[in-house]
Write a structure and sequence with these properties.
The chain has three helices and seven strands. With about 150 residues, the protein is α+β, with helices and mostly antiparallel strands.
Length: about 150
């Protein structure tokens, strides 16, 4: 399953990237985020591995992130492993004007187990909705600027 989403953030590219790379900012735009634990590699660089913990429907969920590519301010690509499957997210940032940036999310999911056979097709809308929720949350966080 693949999809692409985009939005426009009204802020300079430098501000967008600084906020995107700030690990303390995640709690402001990723709903359910509890904490993260860096496991290996240099944070923010290719090969870095981090566990992210989320609260979802009163249950803790762990997702392991590995940075696959890092070409910021233009692009960064992550791999995510969870009990539901494998996910790659390529986040691109395209400067539109001195005060606006197009954020593009290219996502690929590979489901595991019974979820793959039964629910994969039905989950596409849910995954797109969740990705857009994070993108909109990030946009609001960046545009607020006083955090």
């Amino acid at each position: 399953m693949q999809y692409t989403l985009s939005n426009t953030i009204n802020a300079p590219l430098e501000v967008v990237i600084a906020k995107f790379q700030d690990p303390d900012g995640i709690k402001h735009w990723m709903e359910g985020f509890q904490r993260m634990e860096h496991l290996s590699g240099k944070p923010g660089e290719v090969g870095a591995v981090t566990d992210f913990y989320f609260q979802h429907k009163n249950k803790e969920m762990k997702i392991t992130e590995t940075i696959l590519e890092q070409n910021l301010p233009r692009q960064i690509k992550f791999a995510y492993q969870s009990p539901m499957g494998y996910n790659e997210v390529e986040m691109q940032f395209e400067k539109l004007t001195d005060n606006s940036v197009k954020q593009i999310n290219n996502s690929y999911f590979e489901m595991k187990g019974p979820v793959k056979a039964v629910m994969g097709f039905l989950f596409k809308g849910m995954f797109k909705k969740q990705s857009m929720k994070y993108m909109e949350g990030f946009k609001e966080y960046v545009e607020k600027r006083d955090q």
